[in-house]
Amino acid sequence: MSQLTQIQSWKSAKNLVPLPYRRVSVQHYDGPMTVDAITTLLLSREAYRRTDFIVFRGEGTETAVVAITRAESEPLFSQITSVEVLALPDTCVYARCPDIDPANRSALAQTGYELGIGPESTLVVEGLYDHVNFIHHPNPLVIRVVEVAPPEPPKLYGLAQQVLKYADLPPIRLELERIEVLDLAKSVQPSAYLVPCRSGGLDDLSAPVYFLDQRPERHAWTMIGCERSLQFHRHFYGDEPPRVEMCPRRIAGERKEPTLL
Question: Kind of pairing, strands 141-149 and 172-180?
């Protein structure tokens, strides 16, 4: 016996991203973009058994997003039995972003942020392979990433970005809090600098730059480094130089918001 589909309300849901996105059908629509007109139309139709959501594309940029249920889940096509209009053109934006993976919740959330889509709106993205998905009421978890630069991108931030590309996670948006080594260096005026290792971005300093990992001859330098670098210095030279802290944990201090350090 065919199984009846269950009715679920999605309109008030936050961060709704249908996965797999084959659940989303995209259809041309030339009728009025109103709840009544869309509902009346769809209740007279049948839908494919994988379809749970429909994106209606109207004139110009007009877009609406609808959730449906079907009478049965096993037949190839079944009569539509309920319609819930999630978004109409006044709160729905359609964007062509060929580099965005429509199966990635965080990528959709980040795109929404960049386009100024608020938590009361819906973003439909035509992304990789011309495939389409949407994020309804985007309200991603914001995680601050405190990291030193260079390198570029800052290492921890780059690693976190890579994780969001493949991990099955709720929508997350990263905010980078950069610690510029050049700014730390320019906060003092020594006769020479000592940094942990060779990196770019230090060419404009007013004093010579030495690299601790090369164990150079001792000079009257100021170290730009963390506690571990100071331990190395004690081992190499038997003393402690003046030092500017560059450890993200020390600089960031105690945080209440979600933070990667």
Answer: parallel
Least confident of 167-171, 185-189, 204-208: 204-208
Asked if the structure places residue 7 within a domain, the reply is: no
Of the residues 136, 162, 194, the one at which a domain ends? 136
Residue-wise pLDDT tens digits, 185-199: 999 999 999 999 987
Query: Alpha helices, DSSP H only, in 7-154?
Result: 35-42, 105-114
Task: Determine which helix (DSSP H) or strand (DSSP E) holds 125, and give its type and residue range.
Answer: strand 122-126
Distance between CA atoms of 223 and 247, rounded to whole angstroms? 12
d(Cα 172, Cα 138) in Å, to the nearest integer? 10
**Domain-embedded: residue 12:** no
pLDDT digits (tens, 9 = 90+) for 88-100: 999 999 999 999 9
Tell me the pairing of strands 63-70 and 77-87.
antiparallel
Nearest to 176 by CA among 253, 101, 261, 119: 261
How many residues appear in the chain? 261
Domain boundary among 106, 136, 166: 136
The domain in which residue 48 lies consists of 21-136
Instruction: Give the burial class of 133: count Cβ atoms within 10 A of its Cβ; 0-12 exposed, 13-18 middle, 19 or more buried.
Output: buried
In whole angstroms, give the CA distance from residue 133 to residue 151: 34
Terminal-to-terminal C-alpha distance of the chain: 55
44 burial class (0-12, 13-18, 19+ CB within 10 angstroms)?
exposed
Strand partners, 133: 125
**Residues 122, 75 share a domain:** yes
Q: Give mean pLDDT, residues 76-94.
A: 98
Burial class for 72, CB neighbours closer than 10 Å (0-12, 13-18, 19+) = middle
